[in-house]
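so i finally got all the pieces together for this one. its two components total, 418 residues if u count the protein bits. some of the lines might not be protein, just check the labels. i wanna see the whole assembly predicted at once instead of chain by chain like last time, that was a mess tbh
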Amino acid sequence: MDAKRLIPVLHVLEGRVVDPAGAADLGDPVERACRLELEGADGVLFVELGRGRRLRRAWMPGVARSLFLPFALEAPFQDADEIREALEAGADRVVLPARDLDALDAARFGRARITASLEAAWSGGWDAALEDLRNLGGAGEILLKAGGRHLAELCAQAARLPTPILLDCSDPALAAEALAYGADAIAYPAALMTAGAFKDALEPTGIALRR
Amino acid sequence: MITLVETGAESLHTLEGALDRLGFLHRRAPDPDSAGSTGPLVILGSGPFDPACAALKASGWWYGLPQLAAGGRPVLGIGLGLHLLAEGSEESPRGAGLGLIPGIVRSLGPGVKLPHEGWTVITRNRPHPVIPEARGAWLFFKHAHALEPGSTTLHTAQHGRTFSVLEMRGQTLGLQAHPEKSGSFGLAFLEKILAGLGEFPAARAGN
């Protein structure tokens, strides 16, 4: 039995965890990530604000050596060398905009290391978004950024694709619906609630969760 | 001391951190000459099969690992490491594995999402005096191919079909899951697996 996954998101700026606006210092990435592991997270997604290539070499290996969960890094990668550095520093996956996969030569790293992020918008239907999703065979995971009351329909159709879907979602009720309709995992702001509390909220739905 | 076989195909930071947390001594070895004389050899991998094979051939590990295993060194393959220890992989029909574990690694598909990436419950297939049953335990997996269970399988899991999680053939073990990514249970399971290969944390070994 496979569990649905809850992936808290930590924003990082200049080697420190910050709020999504980059205004408040929320602490050390290693300490924050390890706390998420204790709280029941199934993985961690780091979203880097700004260009942090140099400082990444300082904080990422520390996270890799202390966090015993899979983790991914979403950052404004400029080239394949920068991606390689992030993977060598310990990231299990890097998140790249779907439109940039070819330009960043993502194929050389293999599907197991690449997550493609895609923003999907309702336009009287999800046809355009689904066509975009079908063309992301080079990514081993898709970070889907979409919302609204038709989201469950998108997740149900996307679930038929052979690639796992990680849904960016900060609404627990919407997340429950998306998981029930086929999303494989939820990426949500770590400050929203602990993974344990999120799983408590999801438990009545009968969704398979790692407890 | 544990020797970590460097393939260039995987960051070793988390595995080293896990071994440090558990108190095991370890070293990286870019080639067989750096392997020391005792202790298990651990090969960790993820990603495509062919480039990993090429890296092992370039470093001399492709020939050195079977020789060391034949001489009695315990071997643990994790993730892609298990695939490399098997006879071969469907991912590379013309290539061969090291042949230290029986069986050909085959795709988990069609009909399921690939890669199988996430947390899955494992089930014990055969008892072992040291490695626990781990009933209801969750481990983290990331793979698209796996071995069919057989007579050397200790634990299994399911993703579309039942596949081998832990293989044991003499002093060679292959673990499909990533214990270093499986939280506190993963670390405890790794410790027991290494104990099954006769390796213990430094403080305990010195007692």
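Chain A has one domain: 5-204.
Chain A is about 30% helix and 25% strand.
anyway lmk what u think
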